Records
---
Amino acid sequence: MKSNIGAFHKRVSVLKRKMRDSGLDGMIVSDRANVFYLSGFSSSNSMVLFTGKQTLFLTDFRYIEKASQMVTHLEVMQVGQGLLTETVKILKKAAPGRIGFEPNLTYQGFQTLAKGLGVKRFVPSSGILSTLRAVKDEDEISLIATNQKLNQRIWRKAIEATKAGESELSIRRRIRIALDEEDAEEAFGTIVATGPNSSLPHAEPGTRKLRRGDYLLIDMGVRKAHYHSDMTRTVGWGTTSARHAEIYNIVLEAQKKALAMIKPGVPAREVDAIARNFISEAGYGEAFQHGLGHGVGLEIHEGPTLNARSNDILAEGHVVTVEPGIYIPGFGGVRIEDLVVVTKDGYRNLTSAPKTYRDV
């Protein structure tokens, strides 16, 4: 990431401005994704520390050589493996007033800080970086788009190679092998669900074998170069019933209505509502109870959130899933998920895998 050091420098500058606006004199950035977002370096033990006087990248001897080469826009400092203990020593010298901390900090970790510096100096600051990270720059969008293309290629290969009588676990194994061949990882545990198992939104692949007349639902994502992608497709296997096609087309129409609403300035809850209301009017309201979508980036689930409780407002640069579903216990379920980026006047769909209902 050294070649794009300007982007990381800009993120640090923007965060400093946001800290001042929030009345923070210092900040402890310990969440792994946030540390990478600001530094371009990922490890199991590192931290970015704003003291009010310095902006430090802290890590231990295992990573110091590589970090010194890559993190040229921050002051890299080697400390012991107990980062928070060292952080207390550094902050005592710098003596900032109000210090922000992140929610991934353990109770024991917070106690270390509070004992060394006093509990009143620490302020939860989770919203600052999550809001910044929600708006992707061009490089981030390019990485996510590339990963989604790879996601689709692997999905197509998996579908083409699948045969009736094959287990869910076997199909997932093929996907994992394809990811490994592409030097990529699963963005999350790949979901392969057949027949009635597809009524489980987060089904665990098992030994059930794919049969003619089944739904085959695959929800999968690629993680490569630190960024994620996400897509769900549901197809009919063999010849399915009219009810299978009816439910699928209700979900597809709900997704189309939601996509048509996406543009900057639109409340995320209103995008969720139009899909949810359409499914309810079709008689399946109780069968769609998860949120419509979520942001995707350095984490598979991040801001903004598209659900009925969301206070987020869509903005240019947001990358979100749009994934309505209907789930009928004992029968099966449909989810159709696209990954889109909010543009200046609408959205760009990063997902091109076919959505018209078809029996494979």
---
Amino acid sequence: MQVSIKQVVIGAALAVASVSSAYAGGFVDVLNSGARTPGSVNNISTDPFFLTGGIPASWTLQQSITTSVYSPVDTAIQVGTFIDSVWINASTNQLIIGSYFQLLPNYPTGNIHGGGGISEINSIVRTGFTGVASIQASWYFAADEYAGAEDGYRLRDPARSDYIASYNADTAANGGYFDADKVSIRTDVSLGEDNPNSGIYFLSVDASKYTYEFANDAVRIVQGASSSEGGRKFQEIWLSGYQVVAVPEPSEYALMLVGLGLMGFVARRRQGKELS
């Protein structure tokens, strides 16, 4: 569902962190099967996805965009703020995209779980990963990077899939949820549970193979339905955000240069004929 959004481009220098492989305190490889990547725990000292030490100086901020998010039911009501950022890690040549969401207590009076829109976020789904062979995930506290942010809820069980309302381990093991284009990050950002902020959820790819671009409908915010939590209804919001883009191979650059050379040659011949 497309909603009205207001976007404000911001450019503040942030400090930054080194990408490690799958071990406690760094980035973890996201499973390429569509199954949820295991290991996340509610203890930063043992959570393998938690970026120990925070974002170090080896990262350089490329771009950051803040989006005001409006209710899918009433587009006059701002329900949250989304911050999307891109870094390059100079020490490992990784491209990192970071997602942060803050819910605001703005919803129709007496209708927090009914038709009022968004009161909880159960998944942040990023798109644009078709063709990307390896993706790593990690998270850190947003309060250390964004003014006005709080520590926020942890990253949970990232998967190369869309949002899955009812997860079945056997279906996942057989590749039933795999979606090469998407990475879903489970979370529990909730007004009712006093968790109105997420952490920064990082996804990392090889910067020698991929760059980034800003695109429409790049991020899907999902509130899952729940009959046991006040009759919360399913809602979704699509937002603009950053996507990874393949970097052309050297041979492709050569072909482009040849093509440009031929175009210039043809243009000069035509110009010469017009003057003769």
